Amino acid sequence: MASSFTLVNLVALLVGLGFLFNGYVIVRRGREDIALFVMSLVVGTGLIFVALFQNSFQIVATVLGLELKARAILVMSNLTLFVVVTYLFNRIGKLYDRLSRVNEELSLLKQQLEDEPDER
């Protein structure tokens, strides 16, 4: 563990634990959304790792050929945000398609009910 644990590290740790708890809730409720569970697990574990081992980004900076640890943090956070946003846009698109299909089916059922003569 690094020698100076700052407020930023505490916030990262708490947010990471929040992501892990979210993954636990997904599994506990029996929802079978593996991709969402894995995303929560990866992001939460990553945040906890960064909060506890602050110098890990110096290694990442060296591997990426960057001079500063801050640049490595920005590169990794931007890549992570790109993956998360792409995943969310994909899910929103799928949900929009499903909602459109449900609306079409509902309209067809409503029309069928209106077309049938009263059985009273």
In short, what is this structure?
This protein has 120 residues and is mostly helical.
**Content of β-strand:** under 5%
What is the domain tally?
A: 1
* Structure class: mainly alpha
Gross geometry? elongated
What quaternary form is this? Answer: single chain
Q: How many strands appear in the DSSP assignment?
A: 0
Which parts are unreliable, with pLDDT below 50 for 5 consecutive residues or more? none
Main β sheet profile: none
Protein model, in words:
With 120 residues, this protein is an all-alpha fold. It has one domain. It has 4 helices and no strands. Helix 1 runs antiparallel to helix 2 and helix 3 crosses helix 4.
Write the layout of secondary structure elements.
Layout: H1 7-28, H2 34-52, H3 56-64, H4 69-115
Using brief descriptors, characterize the structure shown.
single chain, 120 residues, mainly alpha, 0% strand
